[in-house]
Fold these 4 entries.
Entry 1:
Amino acid sequence: MDMGAGEARLSIDCGSAGTQAVLAWADGSAYVLSFDGNPSLHSTSSMPANGQAARQPEAFIPGPRHPVEDATAGDARGDALEVAAAPLRRVVAAAERVVGQPVRDVRVVVPAGWGPRRRTWMRQVAHRAGLPQPRLVEAPVAVAEYLLTTGVRVPVGAFLVVCDVGAGAEVTVLRRGPAGFEVLATLADAAAGGTAVDHALADAIGASTGEGQGASLASVADSVRVAKEALVSHPAVTVPLPDRPPVIANSAMLDEAVRPVAWRVAQLTQETVAAAELTVGDLAGIYCVGGSAQLPHLAAAIAEHTGAAPVVVPEPGLVAARGAADVGAVDTATVERVEAPVPPVRRAAAIAVPGFASLALIWQCLLTAERHGTLGVYYSVSVNWGEFTMAAAMALLACLAAGTVLGSLIAARSPTPGTRTEGGRVSVGILAAVSLGAAIAGLYAVVTSQYFGMPVGPYLKWALWPIAPVSVMAVAMAVVAARQWRSPHGGWSALLAAPTGSIVAATLGMGLIQYSLTADRWPDRILWIDIAGRVGGLLLGVAVVMAVVTPLMFRLILAAPLAVIFAAIVSRRAAGMLGVIYAIAVATWWATRLWSRVLRPAPPARTAPSTGPVRADLSPGGGG
């Protein structure tokens, strides 16, 4: 099997008991490396002394994850590195056989609670094994990435717990952010994993691993570990022991050995969730991985302790290695290429209706404005400020309705990966829409003032101030989209689309009002002109109700009195006030949408303490 090394990624999970490795390629394919037909390679070994196998238990190295504390300098440290690198050398050789040449992209899984010293040790071990500079991937982050690739739905902003139960236990709370998963809190206990179960089971069958020589210890440990794994699915097994007759181990012994470990993992889970300042109700799920995740009573203990049933991920021992291969993959493999979608009919209508309404209103406003004293010293222009304000508001609504399309167009040509996520596209699109809408409103003011030869100040005031509340709430939505705290029901396109019925009614209403105020009042047309103005007031009142109130029954109840009031106060002086009222109604509509579809569906997400992620490692071993 010979595949391109240039695009291959090698991920290695050096557990305390076993080492797993996965090769992955940009097309999504993956290959689990095997060692003598087994997907797991023993990590344990003995450090040589003067060319002979070590005879003391202190020289026994559990694996690359465990630095030898007393081998801090000189030959001792060199020997420790050499022995710890042995499993990785076998991984390198197996990977080169598959790929055909050395792999340049290497990831090594490490516990989330590790500090700089242990991470430096792992890099040194990898270097001694002949690997290029590896990327260290935190185990719970790798697990979370694997869950995403297998179809587990983890919305951006959601929290989840990863219980990594191997030789020890490490429980981590993560939050999915816009750029990936971040660790909020992690607690580890080396006495709450498979090693503790092995010791308890060995004591139960009278084969204690606390005494003996290095080779004998390794043989007993292997026998007990195999027996433990077999007892998960068999009632009893025979355990061979060196220099002694074999003994029988049964499932009752395993249950007794597992029970205290399971309760400790459950307690650790509860403590970690509390350290992240969350409750179980805030979690999207609890997932158990690691070589000891399938032990009996573990899931039941976590469920009883926390009130939430955990999910044991299939093939839990390989999950971290599989997930690490997908962390930070090249852009062509992980970044979705964004294309500007062709808007459906409803989205096109949501953009076109306020857009044409804005043009119609500003056109009528310019053509029907009355100039006074054109040839005299005192020159003035009577403009329907209400119509002018509504034209600016409609322009902003049209731009906001096109927000997702604008975001897609910008993201498709942006080199920044953050703009290619859904939240990034929406956020950039909303900000672009607000800027474009405000620019169009300002352009209306400048063009109108120049057209009439008047100061631009009043026009800017009537164009920009009424749309300020909508602009502020739209920016708030952009922040929510960028942080991806919420995903509104129906999607962002539906959220940004203004009520078409209200826009049509308001445009027709203001158009009729302006006609009634500026039309030539011939004696035979006065009645019809006045009726047109009153009908315009009725339509504008209905449009305000349609924007403010959603339930049909309340619309029917409020529309009649408000429409009558609007129809009664139609006049030159009231026209500006009616336009501002409609702009306020639109702002109220936006505030309602922001509250009911973005802020109200779930309580605000609680974050980790401000002092940073909580990380604790209760023993040198850390998690398994």
Entry 2:
Amino acid sequence: MTGNVVNTLHNHESNNSSTPLLAPAFYGWLDISGADANGTTNAINMKQALNSPLTITSTASDSASKNYLASTAEVYEANNISVTVIGTPWWPTKDLTALAEQQSHAATLLNLYESEGHGCAKRIQGSFAFVIIDNNNQTLFCGVDRLASIPLYYTQCDKHIIFGSTAGTVLAHDSVSTRLRDQGLYNYVYFHMVPSPTPIYEGMSKLLAGHSICWKDGAISQDRYWLPTFKKTQSSSFEDKCEELRITLKDSVKRSIPQNKSVAAFLSGGLDSSTVTGMLSELSDNQAHAYSIGFSAKGYDEMAFARITAKHFGVKLHEYYVTPEDIVDALPKIVASYDEPFGNSSALPAYFCAKEAAKDGVQLLLGGDGGDELFAGNERYAKQKVFEVYNSIPKGLRCNAIEPLLKAFPKKLPLVSKVNSYVNQANVPLPGRMQTYNFLNQHAPSEIFNDDFVNQISTTYPLELLESVYNAPENATSLSRMLFLDWQFTLADNDLRKVSHMCALAGVEVAYPMLDDAMLELACEIPDDWKLKGQKLRYFYKEAMTNWLPNETITKKKQGFGLPFGVWMQTHKPLQDLAYESLLKLKNRSYFKVEFLDHLIKLHRDGHAAYYGELIWILMVLELWLESKGKG
């Protein structure tokens, strides 16, 4: 099959004064009405909204089916079909790998599309998003990888669909509304980010991980082309699987390292970043480099563990200590750079880490994200296992004996109070039980939001969304379902958005070896009692890495790049002013009750600084984001 690579255009200086984002991207539309008179203007506006320093390749059709496709990767055109694949895809067979090397990823995907139709989405692996515009039957087919490492937004009308890897490019099309969705604002406060598939903008959608869509004749169909199968038993020995993990990890890191780029690693000092850093060191011809962030705040600084790992593997460690002044200076820029409000405060240290690497000429950073969600390393998994013990007791015994007996004891007795709390939480089914300490469970929505706002949204939507993802895997255990839930809400919608975007803003690329498809498949083969043995988190992984990682790394408590905002805000006046001024401005909007915003400040000062500091943070970020987007 032969085809064309079309219209390679170099970016010229645009009217967009924001910092360019170094990230793979595409955008475009398909219009079957034949009436798009503003095609040239829309193409220009969408390119300016992307504000990419990368070369843009585009193709357009003058047939009755008006379409436009632009990409930072190749746009390949053959047989009246246009294809682009962005990211770092790879192929599961030697034949497909050879074809990609001889021609391109886009040409390989087109070949699969013509032979297998929509089944081609199952064959591509790695970090990717793709678009196929088929002019033969006037359809748009597009999808994202198994963890949606690259997002895909779209808006559909009767006769056309607009798409892009950023919400900003979609919004730049003149037929797309820029109005905010009240439900999206509520979801942001609930999740501290805006999860798929419902972005902050009205009429817009965002693909869930492992999904593709097909748009034809004004109708859209969505397909979950990939769903993990979790094994409950394992025929291989524990030792053999440990060896397989070590080999797979090394292969995944190797696959993430391009030959022609300067590569370093994020290093927090935890299990995953230490593993990736160690593998990078073993695979590097010269001394490997790693970048770490520290905080001058008790209980938040992990630099000592990063130093242990660096010394253990002979890695050159680059350290940067984030200050409250850094936060005040950088936060408005960082908040404004996001398409949607994003409240994960550890975006700030990730940015400074990536910025330091970019200053030193690093072109690609390896992130350690994903190991906890693949191999059961989060405390909440062990905690929920404790509650599941109660649910294993026959329901009749619980309802007719245990719970009535508890009610007979005075509730003020400390032990009785604790047991009641345990029983009450155990009686909440998963995944809702994991949201016990969510702000919107600790405080009723009617306490936080204005009545008119609450009447316009569904307060049950977030839990319904969680349940739909939690229940998707077939014949899975509660632990496997919790892991899968985190693949969407902790990784796809949160951690990957955080790290990828901060790297793009700093001007450095990023890859996630822990989340390689081969690692996903291996994780699905590991039984629950290997991943979480009793209350021992990541048991299998730690056993596999013992005697290779430093012992201090194996035994340390998980922490990461958490920002001590709540602590700093108690003593740092400029940070206090930024937060309180943002809350003051938020009072003038129609979303929140003024009395709650006032009470929140008191709760932070007199109550739990870290807990309510986080709520102040996400509301401050919301106000700064609304301001940056000109939302009154």
Entry 3:
Amino acid sequence: MTITSVLVANRGEIARRIFGTCRRRGLATVAVFSDADAGEPHVREADAAVRLPGVTPADTYLRGDLIIAAARRAGADAVHPGYGFLSENAGFARDVRAAGLTWIGPSPEAIEVMGSKIESKRRMAVAGVPVLDRLDVADLTADDLPVLVKASAGGGGRGMRIVRSMAELPDAIASAAREAAAAFGDPTVFCERYLEYGHHVEVQVMADEHGTIWALGERECSLQRRHQKVIEEAPSPLVDRLGGDLRRRLLGAGRTAAAAVGYRGAGTVEFLADERGDFWFLEMNTRLQVEHPVTECVTGVDLVGLQLDVANGRPLSGPEPAVTGHAIEARLYAEDPADDWRPQTGTVVAFDIPAGDGIRVDAGVRPGSVVGIHYDAMLAKVIAYGPDREAVAARLAATLHRARVHGVTTNRDLLVASLRHPDFRSGAIDTGFYSRNPPRRLVAAGPDPEMAALVAALADAALERGPLLPGLTSGFRNIPVGHRSRTYAVRAAAPPAPPDATEPAAATEPTEPVAPPGPAIPGTAPGERGIEVRYRFGRDGLETGAGATLVSASAEEVVLEVDGVRRTWSVGRFEDRVVVDGPAGSVELRRLPRFTDPAELMPAGALVAPMPGTVVRVGAEVGDPVAAGQPLVWLEAMKMEHAVRAPAAGTLTELPVEVGQQVTQGTPLAVVSGD
């Protein structure tokens, strides 16, 4: 049956990406959406859309029965699963086929085999693909350490924990199992040897039902946090450096893996490689990958288009596509890398990523989009491509640097710093990059909050002042006047987190002093510090004491001359926030009121929920002494566990929450009193 109308059982940027290919091919498109996604771009861009009542994945995008019913109601004859959610659910694939719809993906049998990391490794070992041996938890000894606890089902870094001591093992297994059950519905975990500084290299395969298997080059995805990819590229710098024999063996292993399970469609065979050129099978993702655009950019193929062809029974024709040039993708997340990569929630109020030659932007949001707790925090993928890797990296960094994304904290500045790091530019990267280069160090030379506060004050003053009479400047006064004062709050640096079972230790992690708990300026909240700006417009211009000369100031833009160099800052606003984008990056400030009601102040040393979520664990009791950075409360949000840590050393004096309690952002979780 020839496909005429495609329902995408997904959301966000991947739904939009698939719709794009369908439109180019003249196919009708159908979206599904939760109540939280009713106004999102993927819903508006589809020819038809069907509501899935509810907001949680379990009630919506994981309800295969509702999705199949939606396809029938909207007249779709095919289902594309995208990635995540039900994309690697063999039962859903069977149900789609049983409903008389075309499944745009591999067979349920292949999904089933490769969906189990335990069974897939056994099958690969039989086929001759190198694998890391699975370790029996009951037989583990200190000689086996370090090990990686992994969820058998799913991927995306969820349900994974690094264990470096036997004492950590029970908690790591329990935590990984809880996370795996929440994300994939399967708590099964296992252990394997952990390679501290390996290279994550993967092979994109495409296979048809006529026996043809293409290996469309390799990608390297070694820059990761929490075992989730941050920056991906094709081809792999490691493979380029070690030579053609490694590439030949990798691509051959990818084809062998696909053939061993009778694979059909697009898939990715993931390997862990070392500097000697040895590699081991990790898993096979039986779906389209998040990072598939880099392969499309260097091969010139449309992977979604090939998926449609294969699903229609067409053969892969012509020679296997070759790789030309280089492509790098950066994932723009709503998260705070300096605060243990904590996901952020909020409403996107500005979203502008400059496109141009050699730049591709796959985005799932627009101004007005709400980033909530139920779905992945990725906002967009920004891809640069061209003939030369160094030029591509520079172009991608410059594009991200000029981007304006307001309303939620993002990893934008970290991406720019990573792309400009000497190790990345030389290709000397591995999975230990962020343990050797902690985010706080990478962005240490970032924007100056004091300068950003001055810019915000001048822009706010221009906004309030409005237009002046012709011929008058803002410094015109009949009599001298005093300095004006404006006060802003900025997020303070997070306390350093001690190494635990979830992250690799960083031997070079800087030891930073932790500020004592409590607000230093009235109106600041826990985790913030206040900045007071004093300035005056005199007859000779701006007087601040900051050594800056005002060139021009409007509500949206401020130009200052500092040490003889003119620089420009752009300013955006939402609610009580001012976002300043400048030469060194972006700073979000909160305007503090001139007068603050003391009743609104949080207790000194208070920990508040950084996002809505569910309390899944508490790590201390009232009266216990705690250390700075010690995790006290764990929240489950976005299908992952997030530790909330003590801001300073002291005594736990209040713990108003309990396991199982739902909390909103800003809810008090605990109070630590200083010694």
Entry 4:
Amino acid sequence: MPSIFQSRHVRLSFLVTILTTSMAAAATLRADDMPTYPSDQTFDLWTDAQLGNTETDNTEVYQPRGDGNGWVTKINRPTLSVYLPSKETNTGTSIIICPGGGYGGLSIEKEGHAVAQWMCDLGVTAGVLKYRCSGGVNEHPVPLQDARRAVEIMREHAAQWGLKTDRVGILGFSAGGHLAASVATDAEADINYAVLVYPVISMRNGVTHNGSKKNLLGKDPSDELVAEMSRDEQVDAETCPTFLVHAGDDKAVPIENSLRYYAAMQNHNVPGELHIYDRGGHGFGMFRGDRPVDDWPIACKAWMQINGWIAADEKADAHASAGATRATMDDSQPGWKPLVQDDFVHVNSNDDTWSWQGEVLHCTGRPVSVLRTAKEYRNFELVVEWMHEKPAGNSGCFVWTTPESIAKLTEAKKPGLPDGIEVQMLDHGYTDMIRKQGKDTSWFGTNGDVFPVRVDMTPFPPLSPDGSRSFPRQHLAKGHGQWNQYYIRAINGEVRLWVNGEEVSGGTDIQPAEGYLCLESEGSPIQFRKLRIRELP
């Protein structure tokens, strides 16, 4: 059975198959005969005058190497081919894609255009960078100059393409991974996130890919240049979050390259993920088959969702959501009622902490406090939509809050939170903030933790390391600036949470199983809307 990523790029594979068949007698294609790709716009990085080219000069060569595996060499006019998602799916996130090829050529399809089409499907504006390489006049810093210029082009068109300038990423394979890592550790580029797939990282002997080193640095580079271009040695606390993929049996680029980079990230509290697969070799790109390594894009997608760079799926993913319970809310059914301003009572907030603007409840986040319902509830269904206004936002909804704890907070008139079951509402950027403080982040999640606060509960698995929290089974929450829907069902001592339509976490054996509902103010601005409840027997 073909990989799901293979099926998404039928038109690309079909195009290359035709070219491979029709050109079987020819080893290479010259510039005018090379395949075209369905990108929306292609930009020259530099003018001919800047490059020292004549108007008609083009040395570029394309070699078909089987289905979805074309090879480009002798590039003297570097370009950025941009794929634009629809306005409906545009997330505002963008990414530059650097194909690999040992700095001698570019695997332009399976490590370039196929990747861009996949990213575009996720709502990401993607640009395939055809950068100069092959050594000689194209040694360092030429590839890095091309990559920096590509990032500039993406940011220059932010307003036109609906992009956010603080969501520009870079992705690279093999030697392209080295180029991407060079950008990720380059203060001038100021990149926001990186994806490195079987990357060359170090230029040190015994670790590096020798062909990449020779093509980039020449035959006899200085010790200073080797150190500079060993990008694990350039990681610092300002390095962007990074996702790494490597196969343990990679014979071309030793796995130590990814291990060194990730170790440097850990040493400097840089957030990210490292995925090591038992088998896969080198050069698996976007589509090879149905081995575990071929599903790396699923893990990458989840990581981008967790960080809020792309939206969570509206429908369950075929792999990640198999067997999950989904819920669609229909508040036109009998028993549902909206929760409006008169249904809430201030506890220990300031006068301006909470304000209603139409049907939207705004919270400044200061002081740490709660807004409670006027009445207590036992069995019910609750729907609340919420949106953090800024990165690293922290808030939540308390279920079955004890009247005693509310009375203490009301009397004290000081910052604090009550006792009950907290259904947490954390922005993904909260994890980055805590990591940069050098603190542990393993004890909480940002996709819908459910946990007791000074009351009894047996949490549903998966559990936090100390067993006190129910961690979400799926990562479905959207980042700041985007609305999330929580559906909470509380019945007979059991609480279950659905995030954006899918059940993820909860707990049972809760005592007490009756009390107030509270919305939480905890340090950052948040908005709530479409609050509605249905009481149950």
